[in-house]
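User: What would this chain look like folded?
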Amino acid sequence: MAMDPSDVDTRLPPNQALASAGKWPVVGERAPRASSEPWAVAVDGLVDNPRSWSLAELAAMPQVDRQVDIHCVTRWSRLDARFAVVPLAQLLEACAPRPEARFVSFVARSERDHSTSLPLADLRQLDALVALAHEGQPLDQIHGGPVRMVVPGRYFYKSLKWLARIELLADDRLGYWEGEAGYHNGADPWREQRYIAANLDRREVQRLLASRDLSGRHLLGLQARHLELTSLDARRAQLRNAELMDTQLQRARFDEANLSNAHLERADLRGASFVDADVEGASFVGADLRGADFTGASLFGATFAPEPGEEGSPAVVDGTTGIGQAQLEPLSDVQQAFLRERLGLG
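Assistant: Here's the prediction, encoded as structure tokens.
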């Protein structure tokens, strides 16, 4: 049954778009750390009864089906995803958190043991879940299987893949995405808590922009609107959430750069190169993309034409714009239809 459009509107946080029907875009690492150790989920830290559950023990616990709306920080959403879960509260109750425990850190079985954290009170209010299955099937490894967190009401980077450890803490411990990549620790999609505030030295930024060389630089939240930056070199730069609206960027090089959630509305990007770049969630509405090369670029959640009800003009795209057919699959139906028509892909 088709969802009522008015219902969709009330359930989509600001500046989110629905992923294509049946699609669950893959974001971040693709597989857990290889290990011969049996998988288990441990709960420890500030608890009276630390313990560990094997996958078989978790699967034997009473599970419930929950429908959850997924909101990715890269601006796509997926409504009514169905998971078979064990409520986190059930595991915590078995371990008896101490009164001084105020935060929970979730640690992944990944190559970098990446983690994320949330206040214990928030996790209880949000009814955080330990998920073992999705849509009636065991969780795919690429989506966090065999076991992951699902935290309703937060951007999905708080729903850790490949859950291995739950540690209760007195003080918060920033995870990888928050401490290393600049993601907001609150992660509330209704408040658009995507990134922490930028902390850039204005004079240094002006010097770099004057040189037109941002290669390899980490410039989260860069403010560079209405500038003349033709032939800018921004290869391998970290430019998440950059504001580049109405900027002259002809022949700019963004190869291997991270431009996730960047604002490039109405920018002149003729002949620009985005080879192997991360432009997930970036907005190109109204931009001139003739001759731009997106070979190998990740486009999850990117916007090239206004979604219904949004303002703005579509990007200038034609047969010289280098976007391959396979790259369209993670985009919303509106974006796919627009690009197929302008690229002549049928």
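The longest helix spans residues 333-343. If you want, I can go into more detail on any region.
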